[in-house]
Amino acid sequence: MPQFETAIPSLSVGEFFKEQKQRLKLELIAGKGSLNRKITIPEVNRPGLSLSGFLEHFRAERIQIIGHGEQAYCLRAEPKRLFATLSKMLSHKDLPCLVTTRNLSIPQPIVRACRRFGVPLLRTRFDTAVFIGELAAYLENRLSPVSRVHGVLVDVYGLGVLIQGDSGIGKSECALELLKRGHILVADDVVEIQKRHGGMLVGRCPDNLRHHMEVRGLGILDVKLLFGIGSILDQTRIELSVHLELWNQVSNYERAGLEMLATRIMGVEIPDVRIPVSPGRNLAILIEVAALNQRLRSQGYFSAQTFNQTLIDKMRHASSARRALEGPR
User: Fold this and answer.
1) Is the pLDDT of residue 4 over 60?
2) Which of 57, 76, 216, 255 is catalytic?
3) CATH no. for residue 110?
4) Rounded mean pLDDT, 70-86
5) Does 255 qualify as catalytic in the annotation?
6) What is the pLDDT of residues 232-284, one digit of tens each?
7) In the prediction, which pLDDT does 329 show?
8) How far apart are CA 210 and CA 306, in angstroms?
9) Residue 211 is among the residues annotated as catalytic for this protein
10) Contact at 8 Å (CB) between 74 and 107?
11) Judgement on whether residues 151 and 214 belong to the same structural domain of the protein
């Protein structure tokens, strides 16, 4: 099996502000010189209890969201006491930034504390709940761990299939045949795999290789121009791994389908199918059937197990009937 190369993405407050300024309606209020602070985790924090002075479980490593409730408390709090509490909160070096929502007026103790400790202070026009939802989705996409693996990723009947195997085994040719049969290419040669919340694996293609594939004897192909815009997809959820390998007479390949193989990617197990490659085998059709079979399994129907149980039941029935005919001994 190929080795996975895992990378942890990084994101600065400045990059976040630049990328999301228009979409999230952001404006920079203070801390222009501290935009190099790092955002390291996708979760956010609403410091309601911390503003009152209880800092025992304050999550300083998260983006701090100041909503209507926090703003109302700050307006009623004694300014000196509030500033002292804010000073303790913002003194954490790993605190990324503060964001106020709903285009609310910002209490002066917050502005002064952010300027004193060099913490970026942003404001958005979005409602608090809407902003947190949009921000969490963006941060999960930007900060989730990413692995790169050699292989081909194809969307077959709506199922993301990761095709792997030794160099020259025919992965790209197999993907080409699947494209001709109406399926969709996501990535060829290098697949970026991102682990999302809930153990979901999402595969995509690196930007410089997107929509292209390399086939020995033909060279680099532009899939979008050759097969149309419907033949490409930016990303898909990986739900099945197919490993192509040269036919080995010694290997004990699965015949009945009772054994459920799995491969582990970034700590997440996905079903794995080993397909031996030999002259005359139509790999594209085999992968299509494997994808359809996996869809049935995901719905709770296991063809091999059902067939096996049917045989066992018939054998038991035949045995019982034979004993009944023989009578008591």
Assistant:
1) no
2) 255
3) 3.40.1390.20
4) 93
5) yes
6) 999 999 999 999 988 876 567 666 677 778 899 988 999 999 988 888 788 99
7) 59
8) 42
9) no
10) yes
11) yes
